[in-house]
Amino acid sequence: MKRISEDICFIQGQDEFIPDSHVYVVGRPATHDLTLVDAGLVGKGNYKLNSIKKLGIDTRDITRIIMTHTHFDHIGCLKEITSEIPHAELWLHRVEAEELESGDDRTVYGMEMFRAMCTSQYGIPRDAFRFTVNRKLEGGEVLSLGGMEWQVLHIPGHSAGSIGLYNPAEKALIAGDVVYADYAIGRFDLHGADGRMHRDSLFRLAELDVKLLLPGHNRIMTDVQPGYIAETARQWENYLI
Ligand SMILES: [Zn+2]
Ligand SMILES: [Zn+2]
User: Fold this and answer.
1) Ligand at shortest distance from the CA of 156
2) Residues of the domain holding 117
3) In angstroms, rounded to a whole number, what is the distance separating the alpha carbons of residues 158 and 176?
């Protein structure tokens, strides 16, 4: 848990035998208009909320939660978090928003085997991931979040509704599970995934000027070298068919 810059905080995922996604808090504190990006694994709501408070953030200032996508390791503790901050809106890409609103949790679990494992391990009831989404994003929006500009990029492939958030002023990219540090990328075999789209999304991200790479898992990169995402895309493109 740390402040990466004046207006971006990082809360590291606390992986169990299933990963727990990182959470980012973005927005200038003085605006009292802060955004959480992603939530995390089932059971990690208290850890995430306590970490937020330890950063000196008043949870009443959190006005929205934006999901990079709705996999179990990102959305699992969303209800735990929203029960403490019920005023926070939920924003995510339209494709996965419509699934959540209709109670279609195939993207959440990704595959049947994983659903069976999670529901027995955590005792999760059916319909646990039905949510009302306040704003359905398409990609292409420029959001004003707590005094910062964040561009929404629809970057499908890891999941159908994966989005990235890019802040040009700090050259910061919140990439979800599309691209990680160490030339790694997210898996592309789950429900709604598409290797070819994943490749195209990587090459799109490669066009951005990124200094700060903030992925959903593993280490963050605070001094990304030019061409890093392009090189990652090239290393993977023959597998992304
Ligand atoms: Zn994912
Ligand atoms: Zn993930």
Assistant:
1) 1
2) 2-236
3) 9
